[in-house]
Amino acid sequence: MDQVRAWFGRPLWDMEPADADAYFGKVLRQSPSGTRPARSQHLTTYLMFLELRHTVELHRLTGRAVERPIDEMNRPCGAKDAQQRIPPTEPEVGTLFTGWGGELATCRKFAPTARNYTASKLMSLVGLRVGEACKLDLDDIKWGLGRFGKLHVRHGKGARGSGPRERMVPLINGADRTLRWFIEDVWGQFDEDHTRPGAPLLGCDTGGIL
User: Which among 7, 21, 11 is positioned nearest to 64, based on CA atoms?
Assistant: First the structure.
């Protein structure tokens, strides 16, 4: 707190978002990765304390209301925070696809919307990555393998830069039903020549999905 106060030169309750932008974006630009998040947290806690305990007193003395200058736009994130990902819960995923599926009957462009729905559903149900789903061909579906069929993922992500790794992905969790619906009711609506070898499963190139 002393470093922030020394730089600002005024009481910290006078600090505004533009001041925080300058301090964390310019003054501490070259600081170690943990410095900016730590000072941001200290400043936020201090101003929160003033806001909760001394708002009335400070307003009477200075005429100012305590304002926290750090917001979603200028809040520093450390490397640890940036890597943290909180996945949605199973009910949240179910709600997403239920609503999305219900909109297919009334959406303006059915085929591309259904394709994006199918790709996202495959990623959710069997753990495909976006790039893996985009590069699937129709021939990559192996209906005769296993109980539900399998996907031959030819362009799987390799570990530590080792290059693509192939794998077979079981069509579990209802992924087989989703794929059959897509192929029978949607796939033929794309204008591409689906009779040629290597016809794309999702009816587009990598840039067309999602």
Answer: 11
